Each structure stands twice: as structure tokens, then as C-alpha cells.
Amino acid sequence: MNRPNRTPRRLCLLLALLLGILPGCRSAAPSRGADGIRVGVALYQQNDTFIATIVSSLEAAAREREADEGLKITLNITDGRGSQATQNEQIDRFLSTGYDVICVNLVDRTAAAVIVDKAKSAGIPLIFFNREPVREDIMRWDKVYYVGAEAGKSGVMQGELVAEAYRADPEALDRSGDGVLQYVMLEGEPGHQDSLLRTEYSIKAVTSANVTTEKLANDTANWNRGQAASRMSQWIDQFGGRIEVVFANNDDMALGALDACRAAGVEPLPFVVGIDATPPACESLRAGELRGSVYNDSPGQAKAILDLSVALATGRSPSEAVNFREEKYVWLPYHKVTPETLDEVVPPAE
Question: Where does the signal peptide begin and end (predicted)?
């Protein structure tokens, strides 16, 4: 007796299962990320102090999430070392190997459009953080998001720190007694939106408080402590004790200015303010050398990046994981920090 040929039937059943059209097939299929998720994290430069705090907070948040939920989270963190070409290669590898989500701290914000288009073609969600692309690039695809803080507000708060200190004790800042605050400005990299906005809004906040200022000098130091120390040394040689206030677009540059002052034996120190409230800056605040900073919530940014990544990788609604503004942006607040308010504002380092 000949047995019926079941091969065509088996092939049909297999095809139906693969296409997910059999009753109950879709409900039985595991959701994306059920066996763990892979998140690629591309940094502009890992030795940037603030970026390093985000990375350590992100790793800590991932370990906590794994322990709480039993979900394996693999973070692959790459360092672009300040080269957009290098970062592009790293992102291409994430795309080609099928990562669930890619998080990008851009070297050059003008490169965002190309990265978005590649991610869209691969169907891999994209989260930019800390370095904000232009809005048009964020809107190129519905699976592109941004996590960060609004740079202009940090500049306003930095200026308010100076204005408040001046109102409280004018003679402590205006050592020449001429009714004018002579200042120098250490800026981040040229053209970076944080540099431009922090520079502009910090001085606007001071003058809006009816404090008269005079700019002695400004120059870029690319967020770098060593470069800032070099610039400040030149200004000390040029202006000496005329420098009453030092504005720095971030804490590393503020600390570089203090390094130069100590090396030159400057006494008393000028009124130096930074932005980010990084751990080294907090130590300087406690020592009474750095006079103010603006807390940039790196643990909060890291948590938002991770929560959004997990939601996107596992097919959950992103809006249930984070608080969006305009459906695309997660903004973390800034807070002013002085030596007196440090312990109230900045959480202790883990």
C-alpha cells in the first residue's frame, strides 16, 4: 500500500508558521527582546568628564534593571575620539549586526541626517543624547528621539549665580571697586549649540540683573581642562588681577582656569563658575575654589536613555516609559549649585 506524500502539506504548514498566519501563532511568538536586548552606544569622546558620568550611570541603571526584571541588557559602548568618521564606522557596525537600539552622542551634529537615514533603512530605533541635532533631523523618522537638557537654561542659571553673588556682596566680586565686573569667557568647541547658547545667555542673565560687565577676553577651549588652563595662563599674563569673574561653558574648563590661577599664585582667586556639577567640580565647590556650577542630571539622562531603549527594543510604547515633550524630546531640568547648596542639589556619587 502506497503512503500518501505529506511533503507538500508539511511545507505549507511550515510556511504558514513562518508567516505567522496560523491561529494562535502570533500570540505564541516571543516579543522582541525576550531573550535580552543589545544597545549600541556611540560616544563623541569617552574621556569627557560629563560623558563619563552618563556612561557610568547608564551601566549602573542597566545592572539594576537586569536585577529587577531578569532582562539581559548588553551595552556596547564605543568611543569616537572626536572623529565623526570613526563614529560613523562604529554606528555602521551596530546597524549591520542588528542591534535593537542605537544611542548616539554626536561628534558633529550636522552628521545626524545621514545616521537617521541609515537607521531608518535598517529599521533600528535611534536615540540621540547630550548633543542635540537640529529639529529637522529629529523629525526625519518617527523612531528618532532626543534625551538631554536645554543648553540655554544652563547659561541663564550660570549668569544668575554671578548676579546673585554680586548682589549679596558686591565688593567680593568687584575687587577694583569700579562698579563693573571684568570677566573672561572659556567656550566649548566652535559652533556647538551648547557653547553658543551658554555663552550668550550667561552674560544676558547678568546684564538683565542690572550688573555692568566688561569682557576682557574669550576663547575656545573645546570642553578641555588642559586647554582651558593654557588659555587662562595667557590671560593672567595679560590682565593679571583685573580678571574678576571667569565664565566657563563646562566644569572641566572652569577647573582648568583654577589650575592656571594656582600655578600663577593668583590670590584671591577670581569668581569662577562652570556647568555640569561633575564629581571633580563638586570637590572643588566643597573646597571653596569653584564658586558655582549648574547641575546637569547625568543619572536622570542615563535612566531616560535606558528606559526608552528598553521600551523600543521590547515593543512597548515609548510614551509609557518616559515623559516626552513634542513626542520626541526628553528634557531633564538643570539646577543651580553653590558650595552652600551642593549637598541639597547634587545626589551623592554611587
Answer: 1-28
d(C-alpha 219, C-alpha 184), whole Å: 9
**Statement to judge: residues 64 and 83 lie in one domain:** yes
pTM: 0.87
- Cβ count near 81 (within 10 Å): 13
Give the whole-angstrom CA distance, residue 266 versus residue 257: 11
The residue range of the domain holding 207 is: 152-295
Short-list 321, 315, 319, 310, CA closest to 71: 310
Residue 205 belongs to a domain: yes
- 49-87 pLDDT, tens digit each: 999 999 999 999 999 999 999 999 999 999 999 999 999
Question: What's the pLDDT tens digit per position in 96-105?
Answer: 999 999 999 9
CATH of the domain at 198: 3.40.50.2300
Which residues, including other chains, have CB under 8 Å from residue 180's CB and lie 6 or more apart?
174, 212, 213, 214
- Whether 162 and 283 map to the same domain: the answer is yes
Q: Does 185 fall in a domain?
A: yes
The secondary structure element, H or E, covering residue 334 is strand 334-337
What are the angstrom distances between the C-alpha of 29 and each of 3, 35, 70? Answer: 34, 12, 19
Neighbouring-strand partners of residue 42: 78, 104
> Does 62 fall in a domain?
yes
